[in-house]
Amino acid sequence: MIKLLTLFLISFSSWGSVLFEPYYGMSFSGELEESSTEALFTGPSYGAKFGAQYMGLFGGFDYRLGTFSVDAKEEGTSLEDETLDLEMYYAFVGYEFPAFFKVWAGLGIGGGADSPGLEFSDASGSLLGVGYKGFPVISLNLEYMSWKYDEVDPGSESDLEGQNFLVSVSIPINF
What domains can be seen in the chain, in order of their start residue? Predict the structure, then answer.
């Protein structure tokens, strides 16, 4: 009986796998607000997901970086023609359907942002994503992200918040 139970537990645990998924993409339709200044941004974003997958269910942590060109809607503001570097950490959970599609959602658990003269920290946010895995090795993804940085250095009462879409290509690796 013990041998049968051991065999069952070994085969049961072999269904799970470690997930590693590096990705690279382009953010578009990005809008951000710093204090009372509104701006648009676009630019590349890249990162990797680390986690576990059990049958169709997967989850873990997502680390992403982005460098964005910011175009303020108003002349003479602090974000006019600047570069914004974002770093964000997400905890995510998702499901991979048998028919080529996957969906996931995540919550921001930290990160920072840098713009010339300003450093933002204490990040939070959320993301929703959908991916198409109809190709042998790659996945095409679309994500919607919203985020907020609550602290700024040098100290002021402003914060930075925004949202954007990300179209990316990833290589999901399970081992």
Answer: 16-174 (2.40.160.20)
